[in-house]
Structures are given as C-alpha cells and as structure tokens.
Amino acid sequence: MTVFHRNEKKDLLPDRLKGGVVAIGNFDGVHRGHQSVLDRALELAGDRGVPALVLTFEPHPRTVFRPDAPVFRLTPAPLRARLLEAMGFHSVIEYPFDMEFSQRSAEEFVRTILVDWIGASEVVTGFDFHFGKGREGGPAFLMNAGSRHGFGVTLVDAFRDEGSEVVSSSRIRKLLSEGAVSEAAGLLGYRFTVEAEVIKGQQLGRTLGYPTANMALAEESELRPGIYAVRFRRQNGTLHDGVASFGYRPTVTDHGAALLETYVFDFAGDLYGELCSVSFFGHLRDELKFDGLEPLVAQIRQDEDEARALLSGVRPLGSLDASISF
Questions:
Q1: How far is CA 49 from the centre of its chain?
Q2: Cα distance between residue 227 and residue 256, in whole Å
Q3: Which of the 8 DSSP states describes residue 265?
Q4: pLDDT band at residue 14, thresholds of 50, 70 and 90?
Q5: What is the DSSP secondary-structure string of 171-232?
Q6: Could you tell me the strand order of the sheet in which 213-215 lies?
Q7: CA-wise closest residue to 28 among 109, 107, 94
Q8: What is the pTM of this model?
Q9: Which superfamily does CATH assign the domain made up of 192-325 to?
C-alpha cells in the first residue's frame, strides 16, 4: 500500500489510483464505527473494479485548532496506515492540515482535491462529515457537488454497538483513561496498541531479575497508569507475551515522565533502538507505591502469573486484531 503525504506543487497521484472510491475522515482509532464506513468503500470499489483509497488529515484537526490541548491519538498515522492496509485499501492519502487549509472553502476542497487531484468516482463518508471554512460543507453540499462534478456520494449512518450506543473515538479514549482496555477493544475491534522506540531507562529491572523494554508514549496519552497483560511485537514481527507497567514508578522515583515498561516473557536480548508495539489485553491493577524493593518484586511475580494466565486463553477479535496482536 502507498501512503501519500501530499505536496500540492510536486506530488501527482498515479493514474492507476485515479477514478477510485475514496473514504474520507480522520479515522483515529479505525474503530468499528469507522470500519462501517471503510467497509462500504471497499465493497463499492470491489464491485466496480476500481481502487479503494482513504483520504485523511495530518495532524489531527483538533490538535491544530487547540495546540495547547493536543488530542490523545488512538492510532498515530503509521499504525492507522497499517490497519487500513490490513483492511484492503490500495492507498492512504494523509493530507497536510493547518490553519491555512482550514480556511479553504468547501467548493475549493471538492474541486482541487476530490475532482482535479484524486479524480474520485465515489466518495464514502459518515453522515455527519463536515468540511471547508466554518464547516460550510455538509452532507447536502457534498451530494450536490457530486451531481455537479460527476462523482457519487455514499453516506453511512452512525454505527451502534450491541448496547445501541454510538461507537466513537471519544468514548474509547474515556475507556482507556479508566484502564478499561478490554471494553475499549470491544469498540475498536482489536486490542488497543501503541508503538514506540525502545529506549534506555534506569535499568533497575535488570538488577531485580525483570529487565524491561521501555517506551516513552506521547505526552497527551490518557491511558490510565497501571499494570497490564500485553503482547509485545518486535520490529522483525516476532511476538511475545508480557506484563507492562505504565506510569510514574512511585516506588523508585519521586518524579519523572510517564513510561511504559514491558517485561517481555521468555526473551533475552537487546531491544534498544527497535520500533516495537505493545497491545493491551487486560488491566491487572493500578500503579502502587511499595515499601521497598522486596515487596515490589513479590508483586511483580504475581503480576507475571496473572498475565500469563490471562494471555493463555486469548483469541483474535477479528481479522484486524489478528493482523497486529497475533
């Protein structure tokens, strides 16, 4: 799959991708609600024998409008692209979003991007998609523009879960802030996953017999500090079960940035500098402060036993889950 970071002056979309079905949205999380839009685009593209593309925006518009409060990204761009590729899309167009772009009219967006550049034959999006300066472009505008410019428009209703609640990125973020990773997985359709480079920490885990692979997550991450049963994927694709601590290490430090520390089961080796991912399968407990290292080690042993037991019986939630966590 090709990922385009568009530069309007230089980048031309290959002819083989012109005339395709284009799903439009931020798709942060690629959750089950997004998947209902994306699956419809794939279905239409397959029926017509044309390319299936995704048009999305980087950085997330909310972060551009509120730089003092950047949004907690469920799926940063590289992970989102891998999920979209696993679904079957031919290309992802990550369009640069900035304040200048936000001031373009809805008509200019349609004409310059959807018609002149992409040559879309069909646009698929959610029923509440708005675009253009002041959000002037909505479903009615898009359908009218399609009639004028010669492309079809398919609007997809909000997707509701088994409890008849709308599946949304904000709802999933709230669950993760509560440590409810199992419930979040039910809405995502796969286990919540983070990706980062393995960095050096204090290396205290080595002296305790529990060496960890340490990752610094984005500052805006709202994941609840605590201990989790996880699955760790190396850069070469190999998978290992593990137990991870996310938080501030209150037993060994009085300050510091939040860190994700994963004890990778049945592994010995150097991971420094590798871009690895961690998928969260269950919340075991909150982060605690222990009265010394001995009770900390005893609790780590118990955490390991619980994580191994939980992970021994897990099964993929679906094809997306299988592509990143199994």
A1: 28
A2: 18
A3: T
A4: confident
A5: HHHHHHHTT-HHHHHHHHTS--EEEEE-B----HHHHHT---EEEPPPTT--PPSEEEEEEE
A6: 193-197, 275-286, 226-233, 239-247, 259-264, 213-215
A7: 94
A8: 0.91
A9: Riboflavin kinase-like (2.40.30.30)
